[in-house]
Amino acid sequence: MSEAEVKATPLLSPAGGVPAIIDSDNQLQQAIKNLKQLTGPIAVDAERASGYRYSARAYLIQIKRGKEIFLIDPIPFIASPLIEELNQIIQSDEVILHASTQDLPCLREWGLDPKRLFDTELGARLAGLPRVGLGALVEHFFNLSLAKEHSAVDWSQRPLNQDWINYAALDVELLIELREKISELLDSQGKLEWALSEFQSILDAPPAPPREDPWRRTSGMHKVRKREQLAVVRELWIARDAIASKADIAPGRLLSDNAITELSVTAPTTTKGFQKTLKPIGLRPRWMENVNVWVDAIMRAQSAELPQMRLNGDG
Questions:
Q1: Residues 147-153: contacts with CB within 8 Å, 24+ apart?
Q2: pLDDT digits over 163-215, tens only?
Q3: pLDDT value at residue 147
Q4: Residue 313 — very low, low, confident or very high, per pLDDT cuts 50/70/90?
Q5: Whole-structure pTM over 0.85, yes or no?
Q6: Is 235 in contact with 297 (CB distance < 8 Å)?
């Protein structure tokens, strides 16, 4: 049988079973006690609610050390003194993350700040592997397949679906073993010290500065060809961002980027005109909930100072 014909075996659940969600002080205290008794590197992952919430906070944190997995609901423990105890454990050994730049901000926001890092995604890139997603690497090294159908669900929902919990536990099930495989590969290529230096540079990097005119990153800006249209994009984006931030809702759920760029071209100043503009792209009821805010933003753009079509380069 050829290599192409060898199918990966689905990994359906953790070897030790799916642990219960930790959401009380007593449960977290016991988890901290268990983690202190275990040894070795600590695999960590986090689930956010991207596409549903404005914030990038973690709604589930998965930790594995040794053979034991801990699934922590971080919301009940915001500002809890127990987080500092957990952080002391996190800082006591190497932390394994996959694509660490995605999860580090939300882990640090909650109070976990690793001091030593091994990034399996970046390590795989440095090793020259062609596919570096977690599922692809697990299949490459262990001939096991990870299901990814729950990667984009709303993790802010409570209670969490049991299938989602199982999926989350599997994200750390083989992370320690994967770290060993990638470390061995990097070492054989003479790249291990280089990789460890790169991982440390991620931890040491300062937070990214705020973007200048973040509204310019609205999708579909190729449709916007006039400064007057650009002003509409700006005012709609700012109005949408204010509502989304206050309500902790993903901005695109209030009004999509595509809708903003379409509105910038026709600049309707009535509810009827708003509906007429957006009907061809699929007018959604959610967009109409703040229609007066959107119309006011368009009218405000018509009397505001017009932005430049391009920002000056700073190279």
A1: 147/10, 152/50, 152/51
A2: 999 999 999 999 999 999 999 999 999 999 999 999 999 999 998 888 899 99
A3: 78
A4: low
A5: yes
A6: yes
**Dist CA 310 CA 10 (whole Å):** 49
188 HSE (CA, 13 A, CB side): 8
Whole-angstrom distance, CA of residue 307 vs CA of residue 249: 27
The Cα-based distances of 178 to 109, 127, 140, 172, 173 in angstroms read: 27, 13, 10, 10, 10
Residues 246, 218: Cα–Cα separation, whole Å: 20
One-letter amino acid of 301: A
At residue 62 the predicted structure's pLDDT band, cuts being 50, 70 and 90, is very high
